[in-house]
Amino acid sequence: MGVQDVQDHVLVQCDFEIFGQVQGCGFTKHCRDNCLALGIKGWVKNSKQGTIMGKMQGAKGDVGKMVDWLSKTGSPGCKIDKSEFTNWGTLSRFAFTDFAIRF
């Protein structure tokens, strides 16, 4: 296991907000499904401002994959204008037990 492999397994967290035409296209469901498949914990929800908001916690490499998905791909039919990732930090353990859609 090399240095990069170890760094990819460090637990990190971040908050995210996705702007654009991202509501009404299954974005939260696809986000949850992708996070569960990667072992990422946290939550996602539609905001009153028409954005998607959430928090992710997971291995640095897996969170990086979700950052890429949230920034460039998203759910089918969505149009992502901008993605913001804030409150980055490292963790010693998860604060969540799963990844949920909040309402």
From TrEMBL:
The reaction(s) this protein catalyses: an acyl phosphate + H2O = a carboxylate + phosphate + H(+)
PANTHER family found in the cross-reference section: ACYLPHOSPHATASE, GEO08407P1
Class of the enzyme per the UniProt entry, highest EC level: hydrolase
Protein name as catalogued: acylphosphatase
SUPFAM superfamilies according to UniProt: Acylphosphatase/BLUF domain-like
InterPro entries xrefs: Acylphosphatase, Acylphosphatase-like_dom, Acylphosphatase-like_dom_sf
Species, as recorded: Culex pipiens pipiens (Northern house mosquito)
Molecular function per GO: acylphosphatase activity
Domain Acylphosphatase-like intervals: 13-103
Taxonomy, superkingdom: Eukaryota
UniProt similarity note: Belongs to the acylphosphatase family.
The UniProt record lists the keyword Cell membrane: no
EC number: 3.6.1.7
Keyword tags: Hydrolase
